[in-house]
Amino acid sequence: MRQRDPQERLALAGLHDGNPRRWIEWATTTGRVDVVTDGRDVLEQAVAEWAVGVQAHGLEQSVLIARNNDARSELNELARDQRAPQAPSVRSAPTGRSRSRLVTG
Questions:
Q1: How far apart are CA 72 and CA 64, in angstroms?
Q2: What is the dihedral of CA 31, 36, 40, 45, to 10 degrees?
Q3: What DSSP string runs through the chain?
Q4: Residues 6+ positions from 7 with CB-CB distance below 8 Å
Q5: Whose CB among 53, 71, 93, 98 lies 3.0–4.6 Å from 62's, allowing a Cys bridge?
Q6: How many Cα atoms occupy the beta-carbon half-sphere of 103 within 13 Å?
């Protein structure tokens, strides 16, 4: 059993039964998730936490994951702004089916 906390197991049971309310309440109460109502705040928080990961583990070991292309674009812009004083900019460029990173500067 991976979850040793009985309250967490109970919350997960509700999630598995299709009722996320109990898990969300448990997760917010225990500090496992932060509820942020402003989408821009979420992106700024994600980039700030990513930057901490970059400092601790390096750029190659730290990732940001976006749910769609609009969020990806905003995250990339924020990450570039955050890293601008420290490193060359990293930009995505279309290369057919996939995207490649181009480092400039």
A1: 9
A2: -10
A3: -----HHHHHHHHHHHTT-THHHHHHHHHTTS------HHHHHHHHHHHHHHHHHHH-GGG-----SSHHHHHHHHHHHHHHHTTTS-EEEEEEETTEEEEEEE-
A4: 26
A5: 53
A6: 4
pLDDT of residue 56: 95
Residue with tokens 């990293």: 90
- N-terminal to C-terminal alpha carbon distance within the chain: 50
pLDDT exceeds cutoff 70 at 23 = yes
Distance between CA atoms of residues 66 and 86, nearest Å: 23
- What is d(CA 24, CA 32) in angstroms, rounded to the nearest whole number? 9
Would the pLDDT of 75 be above 50?
A: yes
Residue 9 near residue 3, CB atoms below 8 Å: yes
pTM: 0.54
Q: How far apart, in whole angstroms, are the C-alpha atoms of residue 76 and residue 99?
A: 13
